Structure to design on (404 residues):
């Protein structure tokens, strides 16, 4: 028994097993195995190390960004000279999977959903040379954390929607809870990495005297990191249940629509469309486009592209061709996002072109005709005035007649 290997390999069986199996009834063999395993276990637990102690989940008030902290094991036993590592596992209580981290540090930070509890467990881990190649680990030590729950669940805000318009201005809107006390109101707090404390919304959107949204100030450079929001509330009667949200800004962008669409027909059977990305901070290589086109009022057809132009085939015989484009942040820059509104529509119509041509011929003709009418009208007026004069005064002057 002097060569019992460490930890899990403690459960390995030994060569003597075959001998016992052959000569004794099964129950003797089982009993032996039981004793053997029991012994192995106890010798294993003797040689494992202590777990870390004082595992804590600390909430620094960042609305979901928590700090997991622990202290080294009290003793390392025979492994005094080993480098100590820790295997940390943590999750929101409702989630199936644990996040697993191996670290030499004594703390770790990550984002959590505070609408749920959080649990974490940790064990000491020794490996490599100083354990003669085998992995030695301690038992797990575990802890959990809940934000104190206040108020009824029905007092929580509903249908929270946050949109980062054109990668520039962030708006969130929500609906009040189904059952909220008279005179109660909501407050929004937010935090992202780089702020040293959570901030209160400074520009609320209101409806019926109640806060139902927030217009954020400039949150530039807060992309690609957790953006945490808590909407809690106050009322004189009952507390309101807080609701927590977390997202990353680049994933909730709704760009402005593409601009300056230019639709041309270079060949009889195809159209060429070009456009410009919307003005603003979105890098043009971060946009994907959807082009929709329609011929003679038939149903709209879609094409996707990452470029700022597209060539579209025209069906034989169609006379009216319409097109519009919308954009979205692409998969290279975000995991998700919202489509923009459609751009203004551009149409080319063969009939309309004929009409325009006629229009330009007709304008001068009409102008000339108007001129003729005007001249005739003036002439008639003058004739009438002269006639009046002649009839009004009996003494006709020769020189007056000459003027008329
Ligand atoms: C590793 O093996 C050596 C030689 O067999 C032994 O002296 C040493 O005590 C072992 N180390 C540990 C941590 O048991
Ligand atoms: C709402 O949350 C903020 C930020 O965590 C906190 O400072 C404030 O006290 C909370 N208000 C209520 C009424 O719970
Ligand atoms: C249009 O008609 C020509 C000749 O009949 C044919 O070759 C071409 O494929 C047609 N194009 C389309 C888009 O239907």
């Amino acid at each position: 028994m002097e060569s019992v290997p460490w930890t899990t390999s403690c459960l390995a069986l030994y060569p003597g097993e075959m001998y016992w199996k052959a000569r004794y009834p099964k129950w003797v063999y089982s009993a032996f195995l039981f004793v053997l395993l029991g012994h192995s276990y106890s010798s294993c637990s003797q040689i494992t190390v202590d777990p870390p102690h004082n595992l804590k989940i600390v909430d620094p008030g960042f609305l979901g960004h928590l700090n997991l902290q622990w202290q080294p094991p009290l003793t390392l036993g025979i492994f005094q000279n080993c480098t100590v590592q820790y295997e940390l596992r943590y999750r929101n209580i409702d989630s199936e999977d644990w996040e697993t981290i191996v670290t030499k540090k004594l703390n770790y930070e990550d984002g959590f959903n505070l609408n749920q509890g959080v649990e974490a467990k940790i064990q000491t881990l020794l490996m490599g040379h100083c354990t003669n190649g085998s992995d030695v680990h301690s038992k797990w030590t575990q802890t959990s954390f809940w934000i104190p729950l206040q108020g009824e669940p029905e007092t929580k805000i509903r249908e929270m929607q946050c949109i980062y318009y054109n990668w520039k201005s962030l708006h969130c809107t929500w609906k009040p809870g189904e059952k909220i006390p008279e005179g109660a109101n909501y407050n929004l707090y937010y935090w992202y990495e780089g702020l040293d404390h959570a901030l209160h919304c400074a520009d609320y959107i209101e409806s019926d005297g109640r806060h139902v949204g927030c217009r954020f100030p400039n949150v530039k450079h807060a992309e690609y990191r957790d953006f945490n929001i808590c909407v809690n509330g106050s009322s004189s009667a009952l507390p309101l249940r807080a609701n927590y949200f977390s997202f990353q800004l680049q994933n909730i962008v709704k760009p402005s629509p593409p601009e300056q669409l230019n639709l041309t027909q270079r060949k009889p059977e195809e159209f060429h469309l070009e456009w410009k990305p919307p003005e603003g901070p979105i890098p043009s290589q971060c946009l994907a486009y959807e082009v929709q086109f329609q011929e003679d009022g038939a149903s709209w057809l879609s094409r996707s592209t990452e470029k700022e132009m597209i060539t579209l085939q025209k069906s034989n015989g169609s006379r009216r061709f319409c097109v519009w484009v919308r954009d979205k942040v692409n998969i290279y820059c975000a995991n998700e996002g919202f489509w923009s509104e459609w751009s203004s529509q551009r149409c080319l119509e063969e009939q309309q072109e004929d009409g325009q041509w006629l229009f330009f011929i007709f304008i001068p003709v009409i102008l000339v005709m108007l001129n003729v009418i005007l001249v005739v009208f003036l002439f008639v007026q003058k004739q009438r005035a002269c006639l009046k004069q002649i009839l009004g005064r009996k003494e006709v002057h020769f020189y007056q007649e000459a003027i008329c």
